[in-house]
Amino acid sequence: MGANVFDTLKERGFIAQTTNEEKIRDLLANEKMTFYIGFDPTADSLHVGHLLQLIVMAHMQKAGHKPIALIGGGTAMVGDPSGRTDMRKMLTPEEIEHNGSRFRDQMKRLVDFGEGKAMMINNADWLLNLNYVSFLRDVGVHFSVNRMLTAECFKSRMEKGLSFIEFNYMLMQSYDFFKLYKDFGCRLELGGDDQWSNILGGIDLVRRTEGEEVYGMTFTLLTTSEGKKMGKTQSGAVWLDPNKTTPYDFYQYWRNIDDADVVKCLKLLTFLPMDQIEEMASFRDARINEAKKILAYEVTGIVHGKEEADKAKEAAESLFGQGASSENMPTASILMQELARGIPVVDLLIKTGLIPSKGEGRRLIQQGGLYLNNKRVETIDKTVFETDLENGEIIIRKGKKSFHRIIVK
Length: 409
Fold this sequence. Notes:
Number of strands: 15
CATH superfamily of the largest domain: HUPs
Oligomer: single chain
Radius of gyration: 24 Å
Helix content: 40-55%
Distance between the termini: 57 Å
Number of domains: 3
Largest sheet: 6 strands, mixed
Shape: globular
Structural class: alpha/beta
């Protein structure tokens, strides 16, 4: 099997906690392990936080292990309280089904679901048909409420109030592990470090009901050097769906991350060899931008394919080289009659998705950070007319690096 994937994951900085490090390392070196990671379809796209899990799946699969991507069609009906201070919005079964189908398409870029390679399973298949009283007798009997209340995911919710529906989540996720162990011989659950308590619940359930040892391993959450969750922008999450976050904006997100986060992201989100990454760790000042470009290109290629990565790179470089090829920029359209009668610049910014609110637009203009066709917008009451078109388009620049093209229909 070549190098032990456990050592690869550890060296690249993925591993946060393990239930039995020595045993897991030994199993990954000497056996083909079936493992699973759960994805609750609470939105219609995966985001940057999920990308880390998919990269882990890819590392594991390349090393000869078999992934199960578990779509949480059943657990999403309840909602995971982990990392939340409030209860999640309830989704309809139709929304959950739609979201799950979108996940499948995005995962295929990183995980090979060919015959016998990886499985995609939906926990709705067993959770939605459970008999509640039987479930309480067979599963609930093994859980101590006192111990559950010490779990981080519940502790943080006690002040605001934890609903009974959420309290069931741990039992459901634990039952998933039991079910995957019984039906597919799955002996390892992986997940973000916020899933530690839920993973332990599943391991304990398998031990109590089957007398067998199964294992868990969690990964560091994708955070900045300041400890904030990555993948958030002023206008929301950084999505893997190109219709929600364009490949250009996706590229720009990584191109513009803090210097302190570049090496960590290269280790976690690309497959570049470690010696190449270690070399980039010595880059300082202007050279760190080279590393950022490599990161942006690699991650965009992994998520959107080489062609889109090439386009995003070319668009970014031509803009910063002032050659301004606008072809690959995020583009929005506006009707000619809107321009003919004039549209306030703040409304135009909202329409193009460059800002989330009018207040944000006003702040941007007051701070001198907004440009139309490379001319700074001086006043918040600026109105954009047909005369502002250049070559049939308007290029909006927000700050130094965020570009958007407006074309006229």
